[in-house]
Each structure stands twice: as C-alpha cells, then as structure tokens.
Design goal:
The complex is a heterodimer of chains A (454) and B (315). Chain A is built from 14 helices and 17 strands. With 454 residues, chain A is α/β, with parallel strands linked by helices. In chain A, the strands form 4 sheets. A 6-stranded mixed sheet of chain A has the order 1-14-13-17-15-16, with helices on both faces. Chain A has a 4-stranded antiparallel sheet with strand order 2-8-7-4, with no helix packed on it. A 4-stranded parallel sheet of chain A has the order 11-10-9-12, with helices on both faces. In chain A, a hairpin with a 7-residue loop joins strand 13 and strand 14. Chain A is globular, with a radius of gyration of 22 Å. With 315 residues, chain B is mainly α. The termini of chain B are far apart. Chain B has one domain: Ammonium transporter fold, CATH 1.10.3430. Chain B is built from 13 helices and no strands. The chains are: A alpha/beta (454), B mainly alpha (315). The interface between A and B is large, with 77 and 46 residues.
Chain lengths: 454, 315
C-alpha cells in the first residue's frame, strides 16, 4: 500500500453553501465542569432500541456503572455519569418531543469510579465489537449511531478505507476541533488499534481547511512519528457546508458514491467521527465507558462562549450557568449546530451522548423571515449536495403527490438544509421535504396494515 | 431564570442566507441602467418618459390586481419594476403612451397575476406583452426613428439594422447603438456591461447567454449570414442576457439551460432568415418558454449515488 493510493487533493463534490463559520471557541481550552447536583439519563440516547433500567430508586451507583441496557442488536448501554443515589425513574421529554423513561441520579459530588472498571482485553475483531458495545459508545458527531454496530461490518462487504471525520462544517461548533488539539495522540493511537484489527490499510483524515492548526498537528504525527507503514494521511477539504455529512465526505475523500439507500460499507468505506475514535482509544486504555463529553457553548445570548466537558445527563441550564449565564434573554436554544440542530422548547433538558453543542440565540438570530413565492432561481438545485431538486420536491409535498416525491428521490435527501439556507424567497424547503418523508412513511405503513388484513 | 419567557421552536436550519428576491430584482435593475442611459443618449429624454410610464403602470397594475384578488401586496419585491423596465426597453421611442400602458397592464395582469403572480407565469411577461403589441399595433411598433433623430428632426423613421440593406451599419455603430430599433436593444455595449454585472453578482449563470450567442454564431454561418452582425443587431443581446435568463421561464438544470438557449438561438436565426419578419428573438424565447417544463423533465440531474457502479475509485 503506497502513497499513490491516497488522493492528492479532495474530490469535487456538488453543491454546498458557504455558511458563516463563527468558530469563536476554537482557541478556548476545554473546561471540565464539576458534577452537577442531579443528572438525568434518558433510556434512548442512540439510534435503535431504547434501554431498560437495571437500577431502581434508592440504589447507590458509581461513575461508569451500567444503569440501563438492552439486548437488541442496534442499541448501546447507558452508564452512570456521576456517583450518588438513584432518585427516581420518570418520564422526560426529549428534544424531539418524545416522552421516554430517564434515570435521575442525585450526585454526592465525589465522582467515585466504579470498582469493576478495567481496560478491556481486545485481541480480535469480536473482542473489539463486544468491548465497544460495553463502552456505550455511539457516534459522537451528532447522529448517535451505536459504534459497535458500525464496526460490525457484514462479511460480504469489502471495506478498504477508513475516513476520520474532522470536517466539523456546522457553524459555531468546535468540539471536534478541540479534541484534535487537546488529544491528538489519542486519535492516532485509536486509528492504529482500529485499523489493524479491521485490516484496513488506508485511513484518510478529512479536515476542512479552516482548521490549519488541526491539519498541522495531525499531519505532523501521521508523517513523522508513528505512521511507519504510511497508511494514514490527512486530507484538507474546502471549508464548505456540508462536508462533514457522511456521503459527501466519502465522495470528497475517495471519489466514491454511496449507492442510493446503501451504507458507507457499500462503497467500501468506514467513517468514524474524530471524537468517537479518540474516546475509543482512551477506553481501550482505561476501560472508562462513555460518561462525559465535550460541548461547545456559544451563540449570541451566551455570555462566555467556551468548550466544556460535562457529565452526560447534565441539565442544559446548569451548564449555561457554569459558563457565566445568559447575556440576553435567549429566544432560541439549539442542541447541535444551526444548520441541523434541534431547537429546544426550554433549557431544562439534559445533555445526551451525541450532543456536540448547545447554542443560545437572542431575538435577532432567532427570528426567521417569512417565506414568499418561489421565483425558480435554481439556487436550491445548485446548493443541493445530493443533486436533488428541492423545489420540485417541496412542490410535490405541497400537492401530497407521493409519486413525484419518489420520482425526485425524496428519501435520498439528508436534510442538510442547504436548500433552505440558499433560498432568496426564504422558503421552508427542507422542512417541507421532511414532512414529505413522513407522508411517504405513513403511506407505507397504511399499505402494510392493509396488506396484513387482506 | 426564564420562567415565562417562551423560546422559538422551529425545524432546522436555523440560519438563512442573506439573498432575497428584492435584492436579486434590484441587481437586475442596476444591470439595466447602462442600457437605459444609452437609450436616453441615443433617442433623447423621451426614452426616460417611456420607461417611467411602463414602470409606473406595471407597479400600479400589480398593486391593484393583488388588491382585487385579495392577496398580499408583492410590489415590494420589485419584480413589477423589472417587467416595466424590460417592456419599455423593448418598445420604439415614439410609441403612443396609451399603447405602452396597455402593454404593461397586459404583462402584469394577464400574463403574470392571472397565472398566480411571481414565479408562476409560463412565459416572460414583458416579451408576451411585446408580442401582443406587435400583433395588435404593427405600424406603431415597427416605426423606429433613427438614432439621434432629435438633433435632426427631418427624418421620421428609419430601417433597423436587420431590416436595412446589408452593410448599412458598421460593427462600431451596432456596438455603440448608432442605429434605430427599440430603445433598449440598440447599444450592445451597455447590454454586455449589464450582463457581466449580473454574472459577477451571480444573479444569472453565464450558461444561457453564452450558449445563446454561441449557437447564434454557428447558425448564422450555417445559413450564410454574417455572425457578428446577427449577434450585435436587433434584440438578440437584450434577449440572450435579460429575457432568456428570466428565472421563472427558463430551466433550472444545467443541461436544461443549454438546450433551452440553443433552441432559442436556432429559432431566432431561422425566423430572421426565413420568415417575413425582420426580428425573431421575442417569438423564439416565448416558444422555448412553453417547452421549459418538458426540457426540465428530460434533464433532471441524477442524484448522488444513482450510479450503480459505486465500487472502485472513479478517476
């Protein structure tokens, strides 16, 4: 495997938009937040089956102790992020409006580590997969897909490339960037352990070129010290949203396209978020499961934008208070970035495993313009990284025309929001497309139940 | 901390770009200023009066039409101003003001508002109005005074470059607009200047004008006409830069734009050469406007990952 296997520069991708970067916290050393008084750990912090609690009110738990798990294949166990007493198990509202059970733990402030924690023994792939499952790791870039499932590549797929996602194309968020600066060696050793076990001989670290310091640090390590086989390379990408989206990143790094409805493994690629790989490396050394994570706290309503490492399950209100509180009355609070993040109905919700940012905005940023008629300028089509026609899709959804939705490949939309961002008439294109997917889904369900009866 | 203060909740994205319909229309108006100034220099201040009449009657009829239909006022997006301006630039300077007012009302009320307003019209309003006037009032629409006639009042009408004998006008005359015609179409230089501005501001993509002009050159060679003369004379540049690039009535897709512009150019040269009208730009653009939905259907882009052979690096 020589150098020629690596692309000299990133492949061209279609569309994308230039969003304001606003990476105000890129030079801010992460601060560790002390244990809050109370944490709440919802049973569904990942894509897949929710967990069931294995503790009950009154139990004493320590940091890293399993408090909930599931036998389903696509799931990840949940660990206590503080030491203290389980207060109650009660329903809470998730950012998406779902009501799920959550374990409330009152912290004793001691952060006592669970006694059974020891580094896992990993010698082969199945060891790795079960260890990753035990760690409760999910994709830390935002989607929250259980990592053990991702690493469990079906044997008929020939995966020859691993891509490390450091694109971080969302405005404001710098948590992956800080991970590179603060834990660069963890990342490299994580890459090495994974790639050897998986037998992958080409690792491409994709970083947007608005992070020159991160590119330099990782290139230096990859070029000079550890990478004797020359199998890891840093690939600078143009800073354009959404380069961090899996399918776009794969296209930019390898020139391959994930087939419609397929997975990255269908294109021979495994994509891992940089913070995920860095955590994995530390977990293999210490055995401490996923109990805390770094968040970017920023936005016009926040007094001191910063990066903070918090126990999972901390209330957002507590974190903002720890960071100095609000500068003005917040009018919109986001979990995640402004392009794909979820707007919260209040700041009493709790941090989940896959959160990478909490952004709070004042009135000016929170208000969106009213939509007006489409003038067919074609900017949405030009901006769509998936090469769809958002305006046709949105019109089809308005007409509830499911045939047209399918014809224009509505399910291939990844909801990056480039169309809505670039629309001069401020039309709610991606919002409408989301609705269309739901209509299709309902139609499918209705058909299935009809088929069942017949 | 925020007891009864409510938060906005909306579906992502939570940011919007800073482009707007109004800014786009403003850019088109700015791009038409050189041609308007050239019209005033070449045909006198009467041109400015004509522009004023068309713009004000377009805006007023849009306002009234929306009022009568009980819909939101849309004159703020400036699209009616653009329609008025384009219509004025497509008229001869000595036209009866009432005819100009009729054209404006037709463009806005019949072509634009009756089909649902901005973004819904199936043909270019200004061009449709021009054709209606051309058919209804052929004599006043075809009587063009010569350039700078206001300095030499003896001459009343003159032949346009396309109607005149071959060689009546030099390329320099055509470039600077020293010839007769509609007030906005004569000065090629001003139109090109406006086109370059629109491309730089990314309001239009250069595909349609370039393909239009390129195909017109090829077609002229094919039918044995002087290509440069064909491009610089008549309404070809005004059509290629400002009319065929109208968002609503041109395809969105890249290959759609190519087919559309090539079709416009082929029809233009064919009409100019073989029909008994001297000019063919308006008719060819209108005809191609009608085909836009079909062109778009044929040129829908393949979505990412559509290619079945996704395995192996493509180089």
């Amino acid at each position: 495997m020589g150098e020629s296997n690596f692309p000299k520069r990133a492949y061209k991708t279609h569309g994308g938009v230039k969003v304001p970067h606003n990476k105000n916290t890129k030079n801010a050393q992460s601060i560790v937040m002390p244990a809050p008084k109370m944490v709440a750990l919802p049973m569904s912090q990942h894509i897949g089956a929710p967990c069931t609690p294995v503790v009950k009110a009154g139990d004493r738990v320590d940091v890293g102790q399993v408090i909930a798990k599931s036998d389903a294949f696509v799931s990840a166990p949940i660990h206590s992020s503080v030491s203290g007493i389980v207060k109650k198990i009660d329903k809470i509202t998730m950012p998406n409006g779902m009501r799920v059970d959550a374990v409330f733990i009152e912290s004793d402030g001691e952060m006592r580590v669970y006694e059974d924690i020891k580094p896992p023994k990993v010698e082969n792939l199945s060891d790795l997969i079960s260890a990753v499952r035990e760690s409760g790791l999910v994709g830390l870039g935002g989607a929250g897909f259980p990592s053990s499932v991702k690493l469990n590549i079906p044997s008929d797929k020939n995966v020859d490339t691993m891509i490390i996602n450091v694109a971080e194309c969302e405005p404001y968020i710098t948590s992956d960037h800080r991970e590179v600066i603060e834990n660069s060696w963890d990342i490299m050793s994580g890459i090495y352990s994974i790639k050897d076990i998986l037998g992958i001989h080409r690792v491409i670290i994709g970083i947007e070129n608005n992070k020159p310091d991160a590119i330099k640090i990782l290139s230096d390590i990859a070029e000079n010290s550890v990478d004797k086989d020359d199998e890891v390379k840093v690939l600078p990408l143009k800073a354009s949203y959404p380069h961090g989206a899996e399918k776009i990143l794969i296209k930019a790094c390898t020139g391959r396209e994930v087939p419609v409805g397929g997975l990255p493994s269908d294109a021979g690629v495994l994509v891992m978020n940089v913070t995920t790989i860095s955590f994995l490396s530390r977990y293999l050394k210490t055995g401490m499961p996923l109990v805390s994570r770094r968040l970017t706290i920023d936005g016009s309503a926040v007094k001191n934008p910063c990066n903070v490492i918090v126990p999972i399950g901390t209330q957002i209100k507590d974190i903002i208070e720890f960071c100095g509180g609000y500068k003005e009355d917040p009018k919109k609070i986001l979990m995640g970035g402004p392009m794909m993040g979820t707007a919260l109905c209040d700041d009493s919700l709790y941090v989940l495993k896959q959160n990478n940012a909490i952004l709070a905005f004042g009135e000016k940023e929170a208000r969106l313009s009213q939509p007006s008629a489409c003038i067919r300028c074609g900017r949405c089509v030009k901006a769509c990284p998936m090469k769809l026609m958002p305006e046709e899709l949105s019109n089809a959804v308005d007409r509830k025309d499911t045939a047209a939705m399918k014809k224009y490949n509505i399910l291939n939309c990844m909801e990056c929001g480039c169309c809505s961002f670039s629309c001069p008439a401020k039309r709610k294109l991606v919002q409408n497309i989301r609705l269309g997917k739901q209509i299709l889904n309902d139609e499918k369900k209705a058909q299935m139940s009809k088929g069942g009866k017949a | 901390m925020m007891d009864d203060k409510k938060l906005y909740v909306s579906s992502s994205p939570h940011f919007q770009g800073n482009s707007s319909t109004r800014k786009i229309m403003l850019d088109v108006i700015i791009a038409l200023i050189p041609a308007t100034i050239a019209a005033c220099v070449i045909f006198g201040m009467k041109s400015l009066t004509l522009v004023g009449i068309c713009v004000s009657s377009c805006v007023l009829s849009e306002y009234l039409a929306r009022k009568i239909m009980k819909r939101d006022t849309t004159i703020g997006d400036l699209s009616a101003v653009v329609t008025g301006l384009l219509l004025a630039l497509n008229l001869p300077v000595n036209i009866n003001p009432l005819i100009a007012v009729f054209g404006s009302i037709f463009a806005i009320v019949v072509v634009k508002q009756m089909f649902g307003g901005i973004g819904m019209n199936f043909v270019n309003p200004a061009l449709a109005a021009r054709i209606v006037l051309l058919v209804s009032f052929p004599s006043s629409m075809m009587s063009y005074p010569p350039a700078f006639f206001y300095r030499n009042a003896d001459v009343v009408t003159s032949a346009t470059p396309l109607g005149a004998q071959k060689g009546a006008f030099s390329y320099i005359d055509l470039l600077l607009g020293n010839c007769s015609g509609c007030i906005g179409e004569v000065c090629a230089l001003a139109l090109i200047l406006g086109g370059v501005y629109l491309v730089i501001r990314k309001v239009i993509s250069p595909v349609i004008p370039c393909v239009y002009i390129g195909t017109a050159v090829l077609m002229s060679l094919l039918v044995g006409a002087d290509p440069l003369y064909q491009v610089l004379s008549g309404g070809l540049l005004l059509g290629a830069i400002f009319m065929a690039t109208d968002y609503t009535t041109s395809p969105i897709t890249f290959w759609g734009k190519v087919i559309f512009a090539a079709g416009c150019a082929i029809l233009t040269i064919l009409l100019r050469t073989y029909s008994n009208m001297p000019e063919g730009v308006s008719f060819s653009i209108i005809l191609m406007n009608i085909l836009v939905p079909h062109i778009e259907n044929l040129t829908t882009p393949k979505t990412l990952g559509f290619v079945k052979k996704a395995k192996g690096d493509k180089k």
